[in-house]
Amino acid sequence: MTAVDATFRRPRGWLSKRHSLRVEALLVLGLYGLYELARGLVVGQTAEAELHAHRLVALERSLHVFHEATVQRAAHELPGLVGLFGTAYLTLHLTVTVAVLLWLHQRRPSAFAFVRTTLLLASGLALVGFLLYPTAPPRLAGIGIADTVSNGHISLNHGLVSSLYNPYAAVPSMHIGYALVVGASLLHYGRPPLLRALGLLYAPLVLLVVVATGNHFFVDAAAGAMAAGLGAAAAAVLTLHATPTSLTALPTRHEPLPAIERRAA
Fold first, then answer.
1. Quick one: average pLDDT of 75-101?
2. CA 42 to each of CA 165, 214, 261: distance values in angstroms, whole numbers, following the listed order
3. First to last CA, the chain
4. Residue 151's pLDDT is what?
5. CA 65, CA 170: separation in Å to the nearest integer?
6. pTM, entire model
7. Average pLDDT, whole number, for the chain?
8. With the C-alpha atoms ordered 229, 232, 234, 237, is the resulting torsion angle positive or negative?
9. Which H/E stretch holds residue 26?
10. Which residues, 6+ apart, have CB-to-CB distance to 187 below 8 Å?
11. How far apart are CA 40 and CA 166, in angstroms?
């Protein structure tokens, strides 16, 4: 075995395994630290971010998919819906993702490494996108789309929320990237029909939320889906085929669960 092979096998073997909750939590904190670093590097690039947003508008117009304002107006037609979408935008992305990861860690341990690694690699791709192509969201692009999340109590642009939020990390939309991974996990590994139905509906719901609140273009969502797909493809290589015995084959919904998982589920 060459030195390069040995170096590659170490992280590959680590990623192919399910570790303790403490170790997995440290990994998440490390990823968040990288995100904050990326956020600091793009601060002050307002003009460039707005220029990139206008280029996305031009692209969507050429593709006849520039309908974000129409979606937002439609959401305003139902009283209370915009406020509900604002709450969903602030809460679903992290809470649902963490809840599904915890569920996989405890109830579907053979699936956890693949899903975790998919999210990790997709997030890494997203960080590259944030750095190379900082983009203002529709609500900050001066194109007539309102910020429906910020109000008298919560603001995406000031205070504590803004300190945790990168306003120019619109491309790719990892709200959509994470939602696709979470939805696919519920659909594939969930047993109750209701859980699988939620998995099927989750990503479309998140797409509606991020567009109606003025936080993403449809092109952002497509880029997020691409990041999730590339992350899943790379995770399959790194985890499912790390070594012949490093990871138990992932159960499909057609296969019976091992006895220990049947008791846990």
1. 92
2. 12, 20, 45
3. 41
4. 66
5. 17
6. 0.82
7. 82
8. negative
9. helix 21-42
10. 196, 199, 200
11. 9
